[in-house]
Each structure stands twice: as C-alpha cells, then as structure tokens.
Design goal:
Elements (H helix, E strand, L loop, with lengths): L1 H9 L15 H4 E2 L9 E7 L6 E8 L6 E9 L4 H12 L7 E4 L14 H7 L4 E3 L6 H13 L1 E2 L4 E2 L1 E4 L3 H4 L7 E2 L2 E5 L6
Parallel strand pairs: 1-9, 2-5, 4-9, 5-6
Antiparallel strand pairs: 2-3, 3-4, 7-8, 10-11
C-alpha cells in the first residue's frame, strides 16, 4: 500500500492510514521562514473559542504564482474576543497591512445580547474580519481546496501552499487528521490532536 511504501522506502512517517490529506509531505510543504515583502497581500483566518483553543493563521500570497505561505500562527485559550483583537492588532502593527481576516461566522450571532456581536467588537478594534462560509457543503468544498493547494502544481513543480517551520501547532496534526468514516469527503470533526 502507498502509505506503507512511503513509510518503509522513503522514511516518511508523517503519512497515516486513513489520513484526510495524503498529499502532505513535510519536505515539500514546510519551509524556512523568510521576510515576507510588504507588497504581498496578507490575510488571516481565525477559529475562535474561549474554553477551547482559538487558532489563527496568517497567510501571504506570492504575487507571481498566487501560492499561499502560512507565515504565522497563534493558538491561545481563555482569551476574550476583545483581548484577542488587541493581541492581533499588536502582532500586526509590526508588519504592515493585513488586508482582512476570515472569522467563524457564528461570532456574528447576537445570542441574546443587546450589544454588538463578538465579531463586531473585534472589528471595532481594527481587525477587519468577514464571516466564514458555513453554507451547506462548505466544509467539503474547503477540504477539496486544501487537497488542491497541497498537490504539486504541474507548472510550478511545487505545492500551492507552504508553511513556515515555526507554525508547529498547525504542522504537527496535519498528517494525522482522519477522514470521517461516515463521509469520506469530510474530515472527522471530533478529532483533537
């Protein structure tokens, strides 16, 4: 089997049976950090949780190829949305403009509050978030996009997404994220690394 061949012949122990992203290859997808040019478009994606972890990834788009570079990550817990917005603003103050962020659309819900939603509070602090797409089929479409980005582009001879090796909390679980056995087009949503 392909996974066993990669393990035994190539010494690639990142590959796991039933992994959602078999295209993952540390040698191709993990790179040494470098200075991102200020002219490159940058954005961030955030999955917020107070009791669970909040995860934020920062992306840069290489202009000629449109390849994505994941150049920073932040994982925190027990941080309010207001404090997280301040953390984001402080981090980004040193690097120039981050064009926008994508935030879990559930943070726009009011949940019985009379004031602004958590997303509105974060935007007022200067985070410039827009809601993620949670429409039917969006998770599967997102997974398919990750497959596309991880594949080696036939014209560039490299993948369309790479991660700075400093993004350890993101890189570590990628090879072992399992497929949902009931829906092999999706990842297992209860997976915790």
């Amino acid at each position: 089997p392909e996974n066993q061949r990669r393990q035994l012949l190539e010494g690639d122990w990142d590959v796991a049976e039933g992994a959602a992203f078999p295209e993952w290859n540390r040698d191709l997808h993990v790179i040494e950090p470098y200075t991102i040019p200020r002219s490159w478009t940058k954005f961030r994606a955030c999955d917020y949780g107070y009791g669970s972890y909040t995860g934020i990834l920062w992306f840069a788009v290489e202009p000629k190829t449109e390849k994505l570079i994941v150049y920073r990550e932040l994982y925190v817990s027990k941080v309010t949305a207001v404090d997280l917005a301040d953390m984001i603003r402080d981090i980004e103050a040193k690097e120039g403009k981050v064009r926008y962020g994508v935030l879990d659309s559930s943070l726009w819900h009011k949940r019985g509050d009379s004031g602004p939603s958590l997303a509105e509070v974060m935007n007022r602090k200067g985070c410039n978030f827009r809601p993620s797409d949670r429409s039917k089929g969006s998770r599967v479409a997102g997974k398919n996009e990750i497959h596309r980005l991880l594949q080696v582009d036939q014209f560039l001879d490299e993948p369309m997404i790479q991660f700075f090796n400093t993004c350890t909390e993101t890189i570590a679980p990628l090879p072992s994220i399992p497929l949902d056995k009931r829906n092999p087009e999706d990842v297992l949503t209860t997976y915790v690394h």
